[in-house]
Protein 1
Amino acid sequence: MSATIKLEKTDRRDTLVEIEKKYQKYWADNKFFEVDAPTIEEDPEDDADKLREKYPKYFSTMAYPYMNGVLHAGHSFTLSKVEFATGFERMEGKRALFPLGFHCTGMPIKAAADKIKREVEQFGADFAGAPAEDEEEEEPTPVKEAAKSEDPTKFKAKKSKAVAKQGRGKYQFEIMLQLGLSKEEVAAFADPSHWLHFFPALVERDVNNFGGRVDWRRSFVTTPANAYYDAFVRWQINRLKDCGKIKFGERYTIYSEKDGQACLDHDRSSGEGVNPQEYFQPEAQKVFEENNFDLSKNKVFLVAATLRPETMYGQSCCFVSPKINYGVFKAAEGVYYITTERAFKNMSFQKLTPTRGDYTAALHINGSALVGSKISPPLSQLKNLRVLPMETILPNKGTGVVTCVPSDSPDDYITVKDLSNKAEFYKIEKEWVNTEIVPILKTEKFGDKSAEFLCKELKIQSPKDTVQLAKAKEQAYKEGFYSGVMVIGKYSGEKVEDAKPKVKADLIASGEAFVYNEPEGQVVSRSGDECCVSLEDQWYIDYGEESWKNQALECLEHMETFSKETRHGFEGVLDWLKNWALTRTYGLGTKCPWDDSQLIESLSDSTIYMSYYTIARFLHSDYYGSKPGKFSIKPEQMTDEVFDYIFTRREDIKSDIPKQQLEALRREFEYFYPLDARVSGKDLIPNHLTFFIYCHTALFPKKFWPRGVRANGHLMLNNAKMSKSTGNFLTLSQIVEKFGADASRIALADAGDTVEDANFDEANANAAILRLTTLKEWCEEIKATQDTLRTGSKDSFFDKAFDNEMNHLVEQAYEQYSATNYKAALKYGLFDFQTSRDYYRDSVSGAGMHKDLVFKYIENQALLLAPVAPHFAEFLYKDILGKDGSVQNAKFPRASEPVSQGLLDSLEYVKELARAVREAESTVLKSKKGKAEVDASKPANLTLLVSTSFPDWQEQYIDFVRQLFESNSLNDNKLIKEKVGKDMKRAMPFIQFLKQRLVKEDPKTVFNRELTFNEGELVKQVLSNIQKSTTTLKIENLKVVTFPHGEKKGTDITTGEEVEITATGKVVDAAVPGQPGILIKNVE
């Protein structure tokens, strides 16, 4: 059972928290994070592009959090990405704006409030009447994750919010108690408005305690609770309708029968991201002779569901499951369908049945009773087909009746083969199984029987080989759809993707099939209702319309997505996303401007609210619009025409708002827009983030289209999914309370930067506490004893190398911060930076550290840490260095002079040489046949054999490997063996070594082996350090001899004398430039 760690001692954390509180107050008092555009009085320039050239800006946001609770660790992860970027961009001299609002629209708050109201009525205001846990007789049904889409070409989020948030609370009041509320507080939440007034203040508190650089003047709640934002949403919806993006008509939508309305993403307890899946229903007639049906008047059809109508030519049977109880449902006068109740329920809401919402079965039949029945499927080239059993059919997918196409479905192929081989086991007649395979389509990769090909290639032997079958299914579908050509039927010779809709249309026109939709996976509404798909008359936003889609693609083309996975995700969603329901009748939200009975749903009022941030401070000074902002503008004055003036430069408007105020509103918007970066979880790509792109292209001029979207992976906690039931769950407040702000921020930065799931490791946060407090103590000691530090020239090798390495790490950190790779930025800017200092300190322990370099280190460390750990950085900046102003307004450091690659290589060489000496020491001290080569109790001589050239034989293989690399033939072993011939013993290890280096290093470095420094001169500068590099032996004499490879004489670099090289074997032969031979022997 996972659980969060417990800190035994907190004194070090408390030291950091004290610093954090001090500087949070300092920042708030000085209003550092209240960021404005230059006023017209400051600069009358009307061209926003020119204005931004003079006053650079950066504007980033995260998805505003929903106000049915406080922020948890997942929110914190997204928050941290905006935080770090905002901090870095401030240090780049930009006016960096990070606002944060509070989302309240939709069903969740209203549904939860209604539950509280019912529970108060049922159990009393103190909930004393609620049953104890041990009184419960039934376990609550676990919420299932959305099933994987049948269409592998669609981008889908992998985790529903319900799965992420599940806890142990059965009742809503128990869920509220898990948020830290007392029983006395909970009853007030029966009023939905109480949620809107309770949680926003907690979010602001927690973000401030985290050190958030948020401009709270621009915050707001959604819904009519803020009349200004309400007016903004009405403008947005009106203008979308005006430009033809909002339409009215029948559309398939996820629907809650219990709630009587569409159930959209944010209205769901589970199944977020699940959309209607269109199935095609060929009708397979079966005439009954029992069950009291008058067959002279009634027809009964087995209704199979398929996503691939073009494959109907190859049907060889029809599958049902003996594990499923089917219903016989009236579909029309004299017509009955055999299907699952779930499927017929969906049909009953799609105008496919006599009575809407009536899915009462005339009778029920187990699947086993249908096995053996004769069927005549449409288009099938085979005759006298039967219904056969298939135990893997899912009752919650399709109709429970499955067409069998063994040519292109690996599942069908292997099941038919299994049935034929085990007919007696399955209690069927062997002649019922038709094993003939009718080719339908052909691909270059798999031929005209892809299922048979893939089952053989993947060694699939049984329907139980589910993993291989899933892989085969995906490959067969993609290859067949994108590369296949029909080889049968009316459209033979046409590409499958072209033929598919034509075959579908023909079958529908002939009355042999109909279109049916169902949810792709389980969807449960906030009211607990399992949803279906309904054909509804409703207002919808026409996403997917061709010209609008092209605009969205154009916007995406010029956007920074920070990863190819995010870009591909958007491209996939834009390819399949279609219209989206605009309104519903239950919940909280802005009323539809032209129909007061309808509310704008929660994903449609949150697509362009980033633009509202730019003007919010002028309109109101609280979340709710009850207190005026900078201007005394009333909500009713914010007409659609006024918003047009601000956002689209419309001039011909009538308004009683003073012109100077209108110009100020426009100036603020045009300065901060376009949005530079939008940060959200990757689960929002299929809806919110794609809507965000669509709506910006529809409502704003092209120059205001968004510039970037960063999608995060989900956040795990201690390498496990967050779960309240296991105790592996933390809110932002709990994280900061436990570790302090900066240690938490460091752990979040170290959690990961890709779209893959990241991990907040509490051990890393705890380690950060020790790292920061240890650094604090060292800096305080340096400050107190600075007069004892060395001054004067900085000409020693280690002085120059440390200075150069600091410059290098500063540039590396700058590069990673610029690319928003915070884990890597932390590596260079904290971990490696401290390692560099430690090595310098140890290397100059005799002469001591140079004062200038030590304080340069402290200052750079403060600045490199500022985006991630601003409180500690402020402490170093002000308390240790005594700087004026705030680190929040300091410039990000850059290298004080060009980085010397030669010095970097020299330093690495010295480190590697010391390691090599220790390894050689370990080797000679190991006992061989009871005796070591060197006696550890006696002093020793250390000889370094520094080769000034490479072996001649290596040069020919360097050239050979270069040729292989340039021709992409590195793995051509036949060619390598021909070249090497009898030189295999020494050549092959060398070639393999070069190949391994080419995987990790720049090819130029691998092939150009000339050193960037003078090895002999370098060793001469660090002799004393090398002599002290052993751990056990005392080195009495160190001798360094340089020699051309293969020669028997060399030069002693200390005396300049020519000396004989008496050593033989590997220690001499393996010595090459940059890798000296090392000899250790006792002093004789």
Protein 2
Amino acid sequence: MPDFSRFLFFDLEYNPKLQKVREYGYILGEEQVRDKDPAKLETASDKASFIVGHNVLRHDAPILKQYFSIDFPSIKVLDTLMLSSLLFPQKPYHKLRKEYLQNEEEPSNPLKDAELCRNLLEDCIKKWEEYPWQLRYLLFQFLKKEPGFSPFFQLAVVPKSDEIRSKWSEVQKWFCLQYDKSICLYQNFESEWSTYRAEWCFLLTLFYEEGPSDFVPHWVRYQYPHLETILHSRRLVPCENPSCPYCTDQLNSTKQLQKWFDLPSFRSFSENEKIPLQQQVVESAMRGESLLAVFPTGGGKSMTFQLPALIAGSQIGALTVVISPIVALMKDQVDVLTKRFGIDRATFINSDISPLERKNAFRAIFENEKDILYISPEALRSNTIFKLLKYRRINRFVIDEAHCFSSWGQDFRVDYLYLADFIKELEEAKKLETHIPISCFTATAKQDVVNDICGYFKKRMNLDLVKLVSTAARTNLEYSVISASKDKHERSKELIDLLKQYNGPKIIYASTVKATERLAEGLHEYGFKSGCYHGQMESDKKMEVQEEFQKNDGKIDTMVATTAFGMGVDKDNVELVAHYEISSSLENYVQEAGRAGRNPNMQAYCVAVYNSKDLDTNFQILQQNKLAEKEIGEVWRVLRKQSEKRERIVMSALEIADKCGWTEQTENIGQLGTKVKHAIMLLEDQGFLKRNRNQTQMFGSSIAIETVAQVRSALDSPNVDKQGTIENIAFRIMRHIITKRWTKNPECALDDITVNLGIEPKDANEALRLLRSKHLLDQHNDWSAKIQRLGTFNSKRMLARAKDLQEVLLKNCEGHSVDENFLLNLTKVNAARGITESGTESRKCLQIMRGILRYWAHESIAEIHLIEAGHQLYRIEFLKEPELVRKNLQSNWECFEKIIDTLLVLQKEQSFQKEESNKNGELADDSIWFSIDNLILRIYGEKDIEDLVRQAQFEFALLFLHLIGAIHLENGLMVFYTGLFLDISQENSSRVFRESDFKKLHDFYENKAEAIHIVGKYAETMLYNKQAAQELLNDYFTLDIQSFRQKYVMTPEERGAVSINLRERIGAVNKEQKAIIKSSARHILVGAGPGSGKTHMLVHKAASLLWLEETQPNSLLVLTFTRSACREIRKRLNALALGLAHGVTITTFHALAFSILGIQGSKKDFKRRGKENNSEDIIDKAAEVIMSDEDVGIGAPGVVLVDEFQDLSSSEYKMLKAIYNYGDKPPRIIAVGDDDQSIFEFRGSSSEYFRKFATEFPNTKEFYLTNNYRSAAKIVRGNEEILSYLDYRVKSGKRQTAINLDRGELDFYEEHDVSRGAFAAAQILLDKKKNVKESACILSPKNAESFLAAAKLEELGEDCRIIKGLDKEKCSVESIREIIGFKQIVETDQEIVKRPWTIEQFKQMAERYKEQHREESSFKFLDSVVSDFVDCEDEVTLGGFVQYLNDISYADLNDKKQQINVGTMHSSKGLEWDHVVLNLGNWKPETQEQLRLLYVAATRAKKTLTVLGVETNLPKSWIKNFAKKGRLRECSIPKKIHIETGLGDLKLGHILINDKNKNRTRYLQQKFEKLPLGTVIEIGFNQEFQSYNTKYNGRLIAAFSNNFVSDYLENLQKYSYSPQKAKLLQVCRWQDDLGQEIWVPLLRVEFGK
């Protein structure tokens, strides 16, 4: 028995949080003590010569020194943990076996543990004696002076050195025989023997055992970090000596290939390879080199990183981490290893696997059951992944599809660029002496990409990558390109003809999601077993489709996919890869085409169906996915603002997007998160901030109890042992936490808990709530929030407003039940509240309602889908009865209010400490720290802390308060979402993001654009010269980019993101217009005379901004004055700028103001509801919101293009200036207009702003459009005379040049009576209009004369259209009965949430509606709406249709195709006709505005201009150009006149339902709902009120309004006209101030003599 008399065995129990020793136990000779008093242990230590403990060096010794004043020299300390690890290397765990514990619920006994430590030492001595004397000698020689081991040799029998000297040769011989097949002995030992003795001892015992274990505990690796280096070099790096038995067997790459993959040899790609490239790559990895390998597609690159990984796993137990960009690729590669080769040493961790699968994967990795781990680049941001890898030996990181670093890394996977930082942090945590090697693999990498990848690792990690590149081409692939039609239907037929030629499996690539879906459906109809695959599909659906395609007898043998299906897909018998549209780069094209013929013994085909239009599609996708400099600046502005008074901020990507105003610009919310992360990546790259690894909420894991038995007792439930119950989950969580209570990191994060226990986060959260209620977790401040005490939007006021708005929302949802889909328009709801408030308050109300909807979605109250961002149109489906929702929130409101009050008290209490911090120069943030238990204690008392319902109520209450903006949660919310943890130093917080910071991303996008041009050049060349095209392809991947450009004469234009064809179309303008389009001036002012092609130029400039100047679509704001102008510009821009036009905001000032305020309506609605005296005030309100620096929902535009700038009012100008000053960088302003045509002074317009533009906006360049394309030369010259009467003209001295050299006609008739002139004008117009296709118009100063002219035209047998300007007659299209009915059908279509309709489907839907309601109408108006809408749409979305209905008016569409028009002079603005008659009567232009109005009206004429008026009233120099035709001859007066009524022409109060008339009005409302159009409406005269009334079936509808009487009735009565009857023209929906909705008839009233 060993003599332990001088050895002190001890153990202690220590609480790391309290920093207190609970108790200790020791054994010294016969003395055994268990106590808390330090004196006894100190006395015992004085008697002992050596101290023995388990993990004493790292854990107990520092505590003994600090708390007991016991400081043993390390040479006198024996650590049984290290000794056990040395002598029992096959044991996976080295904890003391505490068999004295009857169960895990008992606390540890330190005296018993001291005894176990002594017993373990006895076992070690026995083990020592079993070793051969040669091994004992080596261990003794190397460890006799090593801390933690030295005292052992006082007890163990060791050889005497003088006895061994004579036998040293025997030791050497024994060593070689024992280890030559376990490790490499042919490398230099001398320096390692002397320097790293302890490390070698661990390896000697490790590989002495039968069937050696490769497991070295992490605490040993931490204590002796060089052990890893020795192990790697001796076990994994082959030496050059052919006599080495270990290397020639275990490290022979060919033998290992045979062992693992049953392949006799590596594959060669060309005869020039002396050593196959596969073998070179494998052996380079085995040597520990970092490398970049470029293989041809189908070249077996996966095997070349899997084989070294498997060797490393089997030889040293190391893990190889594979970074894979696509989830499907991970599963595919793991499945191939398992099913094809029977290798189960690989696994993957991604977002698609269940918690249990995730737990099992983590366990398998931790317990060395797996050698290969596939993860996505995003996983590098996970703390849980970091911790997992920290405790495993890492062989290397493999970056599969490494071209993502350069060719599309910044588009596809932002977190790729975080890899270097992640590895460096991991190396530091593991205390590694050398870098973890890197292997980069790709099948498509040109020279510049190779340089990019190598440069990244050299710059960030100082790694030099060995480049192993194959230049060999696939010999079993036949490439071809066939010319295709531009028409997609014809092109689909061509594709089908192609596919019919091949029998094997096929892959078809298309550029867009909708193209893949359309093609897959079409091919299925033609009998192909087709499937669809793209990145927007649900994960399980993608998995299912992929698995079916991989099967040789599956349901799918023809896959239609986007490039998301390109990388890594490994089906070896694909016969054909067809590109329906050409790829965006040759890299992608080769990658995708390489999916064919993976079996080298089969012939496969790669065919591209090509049309040059494909390039436009690729350029469009590139432009749409770009991150603009302005957008990054917006993200930085938001983050900078949030970082005031703090250096760390926590926000989700969606919250940041919200603050940027982006969530109201797109329905694709998921895309916003990617955009925000891209922006943060670049900001981090440029040194603005530091993004940390994602973190989840840290719970109160410093436990209040010490044993699992106490947990069981406290829970006191039979469910503790029932799997899956909350009590069981709580018990398991507590047991997990207790096992960590003595560790350095005793706290447990949410992701730790869910991963280690395999449970859902929501279940973990509920279980933790239970534990807190039972006081099993310490209560500490693990939540923090910001709260607003004062100001307009203080927290209490926000909550009060939310209470009202919650009720408003629920009221708007009334009538809808569970599982019923319906639409909710938040801006309309916001507008309908009818409350007078500031613009900022209105905006806040919209944000609060949006927060309430998000809360509903989070709490599974309802399914919420954003359909159209601009109007915040949501599709709602309640999952709970709305009334229950109302009651639940009402019952919780007191809790909400009390939480706010309590947080305000806490804010006051904590403010003093922060003031002290500020005095000391410390940065103190303004957050409140609290715990939920503390809140409950303060509000409801201690008894409620244990109430689980109360716990849940408070958590959900805090989330609700956060979402409505009453508070801003910073910590604690991570239970509900993943926040980005960002550090922003105060030094950086004042920086502004500039153009120079954007250069890196700009260059990247430029290279992407050039790649599209190059792939187009390749396809064009393939059409006529395959050999030349192949040479181009080879050069692309072998030459550096400069050499390639020179050889193929790449012009500067071929670096722009636009095709040559489209560039030419955009540039198809005249010289004057081209100068404007090419100008990059900071601001531009364009003076555009009538007929100068202003709209043409404006559209081409907008297209140029999008395509040539690369302005992001959502960064371009186009402002006009009429909705019809918006529609016209949108149509033209869609046709020219293609898909990029869809993201451009084209709107009126008023519509934009409504959007900023978060309400939907019109100027008329705003005024009618009595909200303001002047409808211009809404623009003032919007301007105030912008100037308040609040989120305005439109982002910060990069360019603002203003049409008709001369018509700006003071309010509109104020709003424009507010937009200009919003954000960090002012936008460019491009103003187009003509001060000579400023005719709306009556509405506040002023040309003053046009004149002073250059002084208000510095660095302005002025342009003038002087060519007149509209009017004949004589008309141009004559009308110029009017300008001589105008003062302060911007274009003074600029004369128009008539492009149309036809003479034209100018005629003048003397006529002072404007009514008689109206009748005569109709006849004159018809005399002038010789061709039926010619257009013509009669213009008068007032509306009444327009109807007289229209009546005469009708008598003459000519139909006409009455045009209306800024008048009360317009009503919204969406209020028309047949549009309401059709829209309801559209809104209830279940498919629209999933994807857009085709135009044909939309038209078929309209036809079905018409068939169902055929008795109500001829539906000409609906036909007009549908036709006009689809005229410039490629596809139909619900949001797009809603936006269209908001843009267009009833009057805009009514009889739109008529060739003859009549209207007022004001209404003619922006229009033109071949023949124009001005019926002026005795009207005299006496003011500057009236002269400009005359100029506007006169310049509408193209061929002839005829004036009826008084010569002396008109400008002399102008009228002298006219041929004098004398007085008008007598003209007969028409017997009938028809006038169409609008909403303002009937007294609508007569139609509203009230107690007095409810029977009559309800009857009429029922009738109007389905009354056929064309029904006769009676007109009667009320003698009592002396007024005309409309009637149906003898029942009063309504009297004519006062406006109708003054505008029409009184004028027509002068000529003895009176209303006779009317016909129902349309029925529209109208709502009064109190919310009552009624049907209002629109009539065609007939007047007769």
